Amino acid sequence: MIGSAAILIIFLLFLTVGYILSKPKAQINDKDVFADSSNVVDGDDNKAADKKDSVNSNISSIKVEVKGQVKNPGVYELTNGSRIEDLIIKAGGFMPDADIDSIVQVKKLKDEDCIVVKKKGEAGSGNSLASAASSSISSDGKVDINTATKEELDKVSGI
Description:
Radius of gyration: 30 Å
Helix content: 25-40%
Order of helices and strands: HHHEEHEHH
Largest sheet: 3 strands, mixed
Strand order of the largest sheet: 2-1-3
Strand content: 5-15%
Number of strands: 3
Shape: elongated
């Protein structure tokens, strides 16, 4: 009986100490809890944001190659965020026998893309330009699983 009373007293003592230590130190305002995180500036977050901005500012231009049925095939330097339409214009436009219907001209370009404009009636994949423009394998061999084809995903170990 005395042993169970001692255990009960120890339990109540731990419960009381735990309650006191777990109480918030300051009053929390609902506006602070649900504040817009884009306006909150923390020292570490600010450094990360500055680093991200500096990386994005360094990549202001991209280099892409266009081949096939364009007037001036070659490698072109464009601003980041340019589209296939901008590349075709810079390359002098399409040749008269270019298969324009298979081209998605509004697709955004990435650095190191290679665009192939096929001739009308030329054998190949139906939308070869879009697949060439959206290669999911980067130069360091990493596969973008969001845009990868089945064949590219087969190259990833564990899938």
